[in-house]
């Protein structure tokens, strides 16, 4: 039994995407993005009061990067992980966890633009700084995808992997705050990812309550 605790437009989306890519049977428990995540019964699953939480075979995991590693090791036949000894294991781990670098800057901007309701609460300096940091992250991805090697359609030369899922989901969130168009190779990579049926299956359904009410939030003018 696999059960994912999920909120739309959060880091748990990367776990949902991977589960869809794996083609395994699983259940989703959808939570609103509110204080209900602090309820005692949920804190048993994720003591930080966040998503994701994954229940599987009596185990409970609550860190998205760890969950992706765990699932790739549980289902190695899918080829989405790189097990110890693989030639590109180090690169896989690096890019898998680079997603969290991207996500932390998006989280800071989400706090500024969405959680803080009044303009006087927000910091224009922080908003500009975090947007610039996201641009640096996009530039790092762009540099990787621009490397002149064969088949550079994905982050690893060996092809699509959970690293693309992790970073792709992070970019999906981050582009609410930084335009992707100046990063040509990254934009084309994202377009390829968005064509994947498993990515589409991980998106919020039509009519769902969303965390982001707008497609783009510009830095403070």
Could you provide a short overview of the structure?
By secondary structure, the protein is α+β, with helices and mostly antiparallel strands. It is built from 8 helices and 4 strands; from the N terminus they run βαβαββαααααα. The chain is 47% helix and 7% strand.
Describe this structure in words.
- With 221 residues, the chain is α+β, with helices and mostly antiparallel strands.
- 47% of the residues lie in helices and 7% in strands.
- The protein has 8 helices and 4 strands.
- A 4-stranded mixed beta sheet has the order 2-1-3-4.
- The mean pLDDT is 95.
Average pLDDT figure: 95
Shape: globular
Our count of helices gives: 8
Structural class: alpha+beta
Low-confidence stretches: none
Task: Pick out its properties.
single chain, 8 helices, globular, alpha+beta, four-stranded mixed beta sheet, 221 residues
Write the layout of secondary structure elements.
Elements: E1 2-6, H1 12-22, E2 27-30, H2 40-43, E3 53-56, E4 59-61, H3 64-74, H4 89-115, H5 124-145, H6 162-174, H7 184-194, H8 197-201
Parallel strand pairs: 1-2
Antiparallel strand pairs: 1-3, 3-4
């Amino acid at each position: 039994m696999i059960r994912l605790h999920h909120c739309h437009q959060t880091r748990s989306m990367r776990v949902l995407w991977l589960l869809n890519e794996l083609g395994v049977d699983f259940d989703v428990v959808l939570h609103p993005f509110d204080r209900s995540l602090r309820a005692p019964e949920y804190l048993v699953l994720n003591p930080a009061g966040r998503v994701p939480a994954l229940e599987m075979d009596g185990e409970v995991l609550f860190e998205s990067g760890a969950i992706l590693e765990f699932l790739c090791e549980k289902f190695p036949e899918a080829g989405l992980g790189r097990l110890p000894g693989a030639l590109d294991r180090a690169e896989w781990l690096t890019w898998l966890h680079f997603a969290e670098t991207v996500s932390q800057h998006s989280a800071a901007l989400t706090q500024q633009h969405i959680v803080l309701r009044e303009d006087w609460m927000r910091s224009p300096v922080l908003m500009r700084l975090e947007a610039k940091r996201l641009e640096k992250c996009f530039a790092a991805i762009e540099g990787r995808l621009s490397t002149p090697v064969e088949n550079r359609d994905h982050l690893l030369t060996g092809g699509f992997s959970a690293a693309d899922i992790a970073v792709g989901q992070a970019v999906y969130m981050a582009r609410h705050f930084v335009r992707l168009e100046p990063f040509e190779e990254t934009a084309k990579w994202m377009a390829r990812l968005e064509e994947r049926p498993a990515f589409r299956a991980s998106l919020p359904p039509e009519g769902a309550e969303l965390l982001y009410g707008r497609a783009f939030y510009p830095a403070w003018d």
